[in-house]
Amino acid sequence: MIEAMQADRHKNRQALLFGLAAVLLWSTVATAFKLALRELDVLQLVAYSVCFSTLALFLLLWRQGRLALLTGYARATPGYFLLMGLVNPCLYYLVLLRAYDLLPAQQAQAINYTWAISLAVLAVPLLGHKLHRRDLLALAMGYCGVLVIATRGQVLQLQFDSIEGVGLALLSTLIWALYWLVSTRNQRDPVACLCLNFAVAAPVSLVLCAVFSSLVVPGWRGLAGAAWVGLFEMGVTFALWSTALRLSSGVSRIGNLIFLSPLVSLVFIGTILGEAIHPATLLGLALIIPGVLLQQRAQPAPLV
Q: Going by fewer Cβ within 10 Å, which terminus of the chain is more open, N or C?
């Protein structure tokens, strides 16, 4: 009994470390997006970062001796992985990175954080769920927070830095929520499935870049930015988070760590990018985070 309890504590400590590492890496992403977009356009950043992520996921599965899963999954449902790869990473990151290109990082990352609230909205037509009072309150808090952030607190004037950027950031939350709803029905290995998605997306994103932009060898800053985004936003960090959820005896304890991410992200945005953090961003997050927590209580969903 004592040995079992000690083993359980050890697993929970490991889960916490993996979870904190994932949150820390995800917290750098908004800053990495903006730095990389100084060197590359959106299509180039998507193409190069997807290739880095695909390679990293292949190597991870190879090291774990699970490459055979890819062949089996691809043969069983090729259409599923073709569709999912086109949605994420292709469509999702094209929309999200364009939003980051148009908006200050603090605005884009805070708005994107409302995807869990968008999940509740999409669950109504797609899953037949009903919106209860708690859901409606969560929606109101979340999107009021978005309005405060997007207008820099000038809510009545409705002056936006970029209405297109705000629209794209909100659209990205719907795309991710839709992807999540579909992927939760898939009970197969999540890392192997993600690897197949990226294997589909890599050639597609390269063709899109070649046709609508240019496939050039970027300088070291652009290459480093694409590698960072590919490894720590798209690929490896997902594996860390999945491992943390698998090891933990209480998924909610690990899941709640994600609420540290937008706050830590603001530290990187302020110190590295030099953006002055607007009070409206903090006020907006003070509405969005409780709104997400409220929605999670009403309809729990792991944040991955």
A: N
Count of CB atoms situated within 10 Å of the CB of 160: 18
pLDDT digits (tens, 9 = 90+) for 22-58: 889 999 999 999 999 999 999 999 999 999 999 999 9
Given a cut of 60, whether residue 1 has pLDDT beyond it is: no
> In which residue are the tokens 């994932």 written?
22
| Residue 114 belongs to domain spanning | 2-298
Cα 12 to the center of its chain, rounded Å: 24
**Helix-helix angle 261-268:279-298, to 10 degrees:** 160
Is residue 58 a part of any domain in this protein?
Answer: yes
Query: Is 61 a domain residue?
Result: yes
At how many degrees (to 10) do helices 2-27 and 261-268 cross?
40
Task: Grade residue 304 by pLDDT with cuts at 50, 70 and 90.
Answer: very low
pLDDT mean over 57-76: 94
Q: What is the Cα–Cα distance from 244 to 242, expressed in whole angstroms?
A: 5
Spatial separation of the C-alpha atoms in residues 114 and 92, rounded to whole Å: 15
Task: Report d(CA 149, CA 104) in Å as an integer.
Answer: 10
Question: CB neighbours of 1 closer than 8 A, spacing ≥ 6?
Answer: none
**Diameter of the chain by CA atoms?**
64
12 is written with which tokens?
């929970």
pTM across the whole model: 0.90
pLDDT higher for 178 or 129? 178
Amino acid at position 30, single letter: A
Counted domains in the chain? 1
Q: Is residue 89 part of a domain?
A: yes
Domain contains 304: no
Listed residue (121, 132, 224, 137) closest to 175, CA to CA? 121
From CA 14, how far away is CA 31, in angstroms rounded? 27
Nearest to 161 by CA among 275, 303, 290: 275
